[in-house]
Amino acid sequence: LSQPVEIRLSGATYTLTSELEIRGDITLIGTSPSGTIVHGNGQRIFKVLPNARLKLDSLTLTGANSSVQG
User: Fold this and answer.
1) Which in 1, 17, 24, 34 has the greatest CB count within 10 A?
2) What is the separation, in whole angstroms, between the first and last Cα of the chain?
3) Partners of 57 in the β-ladder
4) Are 27 and 51 in contact (CB under 8 A)?
5) pTM
6) Rounded to an integer, what is the distance from CA 16 to the centroid of its chain?
7) Whole-angstrom Cα distance, residue 22 to residue 54?
8) Is the dihedral of CA 65, 39, 4, 22 positive or negative?
9) In what order do the strands lie in the sheet with 53-57?
10) Hey, how many other C-beta atoms are within 10 angstroms of the C-beta on 68?
11) What is the pLDDT of residue 2?
């Protein structure tokens, strides 16, 4: 894995236009579950590749869909 990366998101709603591909060790930190919202716009939000890690803290995921379980 590459060096861990920590990304702090401000309090807002983020509506995605495509899925986010996770290739390394990533931590996403929001302000609070009601303050930072990531909306999938009807599609998958994250695609975590093999040997990658994703940690989510203090945010809400909503509006996502996936044809793959997991």
Assistant:
1) 24
2) 21
3) 29
4) no
5) 0.86
6) 10
7) 7
8) positive
9) 5-8, 25-29, 53-57
10) 6
11) 67
The pLDDT, as a whole number, for residue 69 is 62
- Name the residue among 5, 47, 53 with its Cα closest to residue 29: 5
**For 36, what's the count of Cα atoms within 13 Å in the CB-facing half-sphere?**
14
DSSP per-residue codes, 22-41: E-SEEEEE-S-TTT-EEE-T
pLDDT, tens digit only, all 70 positions of the chain: 569 999 999 999 999 999 999 999 999 999 999 999 999 999 999 999 999 999 999 999 999 987 666 5
Place of tokens 């509506």: 15
Determine contact, residues 30/5, Cβ cutoff 8 Å: no
